[in-house]
Fold these 4 entries.
Entry 1:
Amino acid sequence: MFNDHFEVKKGSEIMPTKHSLILLAGAPGTGKGYTANIIRQALPNLTYAPLDMYKEHIYDEIGFDNVEQKDALDEEARQRYYRAIDIMMANGKNILGDYPFSYKQKPYLTKAAAAHDYNVITVRLEAPAQVLYDRQRARDKEEPRHLGI
């Protein structure tokens, strides 16, 4: 499967064979960020577009005081994410994104990929519930994270 989507260029550079959107799917704590860093090292020409980046930006830009306001900002962040993906695809960028809530994102991303003739590769990450709980608890205690995420 790897050879269907990528080729090794001179100097061991790995490049997609056609425009690609690589999506990392999985619940919080499955290692999407960690996996993204590994992929970005192997494929440095990818444009990295995680949904959380759009959420953090809009939380800082507008702010929220309650769950309803946060939900509205989350929807706006998703719309900004979709517009950015569309612009990146229109410009022929190879994209690495995440796919934390596929039921919300799949219709738009499927349509955009078809419109721009993009190959979509989804990498699904999973872990046992206890492992996810332990990772999230440790992350919440140790890593500086945006308060809205």
Entry 2:
Amino acid sequence: MAHHVLMWFSMKKNWLVTITAFLLLGCGPVWKGWQMDYGDPAAQFLQEDLSVLGTPFVGKKITVKGIVRKVDISNPGSARVHLEGGIECNFGKFKAMAEHYNVGDIAYIDGFLKHCRKDDIYLDPASGRDHRAAFHPVHQGEP
């Protein structure tokens, strides 16, 4: 009987180790997706202010409001929406979401700011944001 109890505890221990490893290692992409859908942005910007004010937010989720300059859906695995000011937003496999935008549209886009240099700003992953959602952009002189 004691042997069966020890085997049962051993199996439970292995199961817990497996579940813990999966949660720690396997949920990174899931967590990022959850943050895209539900996480609040660290800051919101107008396109003209992002290159000047965005650097402290590299690696964080932000929202940018800007004018669509180009929509590139030529690569099915990497649909992109380009805003004025050198802002490139990678929608990944969400081609239909990128196709929703037309040149000249005003777009609200959420994404993780990968790098932020003058005329070279990259959000990845990125997704469209409802234009009716609250939008309070950071301005010069604000934290």
Entry 3:
Amino acid sequence: MRTEIQQDENKQEIIQREAHQRSEGKRTNQIHLEDNIAGFLCYLAGIITGILFLLLKPDSSFVRFFAWQSIMVSIFISVLGIIIAIIDFIFAYIPIIGWIVGFFLTLIYSVGTLALWILLMITAYQGKEISIPLAGQIARHLTDNQ
């Protein structure tokens, strides 16, 4: 009976050692960046860098939040861009006035997107969390549930 208990304890110790070694192996794919720099880089290429940093810095909730928010904002901006392209297409059939409205609509969208992206990158670099409505809520939910 005593030897069975010792064997069980030895098995548990071996299992724990193997689990620890596996977790150490998982850490080798991480990068050694400060969280604020990684958060900044999450926004560099939108969805691509968002997914990349979800894989490279899985232990940092700060980086995971910015990675998820980068993915969500990229999706929302893409959908909004498609909607604006459809509206521009419709306005293109209205001579002069339609062209002007379409031009300014696209200009506002482009400048707004650029300003938002720069704002998100700067706040991430400063180490502050800024939450964009809806995208930030989804990102927070996904970050907390991982």
Entry 4:
Amino acid sequence: MARDRVPKELVKMLRLIGFIAVALPFLEIAGFVWLGGKLGVLLTLVWVIAAMLAGLALLRHTGLQAVGRLRAALAEGKEPGHSIIDAACFAAAAILLIIPGFVSDALALVLLLPATRHWLLRRTATHFETRVYRSTGTIPGEFSVVPENDSDPEQDDRTPPPRIRDDRKIIDVD
């Protein structure tokens, strides 16, 4: 019964994440064996350490830069969606670079491509736009605007309530 409430898209996404979480270590081991045999142990270790250091540097640099871009977008009154997606892609790429392995490094490089980030931005924008329109709760109907200058106060049954004058002092005690 509880499964009926979970959207099918979410179930598919969770299954995909679970599959990737199980398959990634096996792919990384296979990558180490295959590429380690081609490059040798020393170059493989240099690659892993260099990728880890690059990931740490990217994470540090991107985090500070993302906060600055987010603040600038909010100060200008712009929607910070592009800044958020860029920051998330850079952070995910940095984490993938920190994880030792060639497959995670390849995925990180794909996330760093501007085309990938723009594609993700378009996907998330349409997803959120669809969800916002789906959940507005707007009741369809008709309305007309009544100008205030043309209304006659004697015919208007929407008179404001009388104002009560109260000269008492209010003391707020915590």
